[in-house]
Amino acid sequence: MVSLPTGESVLSSVETRLRAVGGSLAGTHPATRRLAMALWSQYVRLYPEVANGVLATRVGRQATVEPFRVVEIDPARIEFMVESSALPRQARSDDVFPESKFKYAGAVLGGDWDRSCERFEDSELYRSFRAHFRDGVDWAATPFYETVVDHIEAGTTMWGCRTAGEFRERCRDLDRLYDAIASHGFRSQRELATSEIPDPVDGDSPPRPHRVRLVNDELAVCIGRDGDFLFLDGRDRLAIAKLLDVETVPAWVVVRHREWQRLRTAVARRPWLAGQLQADLRDHPDVDSDGSAAVAGRP
């Protein structure tokens, strides 16, 4: 398990109070729900700045770290997973990154967390998606369905589902999601928020303006020491993107390995080094083609 960076304890107490106040407001005054979400949005944006030391990367001659940066990548490049399973954390006993994604946003971490041997396409979830969408196997006949229902019947809520019937409805949502991506392409949360196309899985909760700012529903990845993309979250969309051979998908870069950040910083200081990188690194979405460290505006 990789620990959170320093600065987490004070912010955790703030989070506890925000959750309590927000829950109270939403429960007694539903009209204030949007205000509560706005306050939570500001907290989430502040957290990486303080806890993960992102502010420190913006001074001196270092490669900039944007905690909520979204890049376009080929889904085929997302080969391995950070965690041991593609299922949500409720179904896992041990996690590398056990806290909410936003708490790691912009973090630069050392260690061997990027040395994963778990391939996304070998996961039970992906194999079941492939069996259903390519081979026409009914959801209920897939190992993924059986595993999730077992967890639900044992008392674990999965994707908001508390009964097998609710999960069957979610599987129908996955069918609609597949059809939507096949028909309209793979869209970012920003594009979904400004289009008339509904999100078959997530709907409008929380309100879309906040989803856009938090990018919390985007496919989430980490970048290992060698520049490899590792899957962190967004399993449904990644599986479908791979099955549909989508060329590129928007992905939120949550964590970078310390060695990768050192390479980014070296190129930021001496752009001519970019010409000496191997081809896949010269074209890496986390490093601009002109050799400078990638910098993007906030969503």
Topology, please?
Blueprint: H1 8-28, H2 33-51, E1 70-73, E2 78-81, E3 107-109, H3 124-135, H4 143-153, H5 164-184, H6 189-193, H7 208-214, E4 219-223, E5 229-233, H8 235-243, E6 249-257, H9 258-269, H10 279-282
Parallel strand pairs: 2-5, 3-6, 4-6
Antiparallel strand pairs: 1-6, 4-5
Keywords:
299 residues, globular, 10% strand
Give a brief outline of the structure.
The protein is α/β, with parallel strands linked by helices. Helix content is 40%, strand content 10%. Strands 1, 2, 3, 4, 5 and 6 form a six-stranded mixed beta sheet that branches.
Helix-strand sequence: HHEEEHHHHHEEHEHH
For the largest beta-sheet, the strand count, sense and barrel status come to: 6 strands, mixed
Distance from N terminus to C terminus (CA atoms, Å) equals 29 Å
The overall average pLDDT, rounded, is: 81
Helix content: 40-55%
- What structural category do the secondary elements indicate? alpha/beta
How many domains make up the 3D coordinates? Answer: 1
How big is the Rg?
Answer: 20 Å
- Coarse morphology: globular
Low-confidence stretches: 289-299
Number of strands: 6
Proportion of residues in β-strands: 5-15%
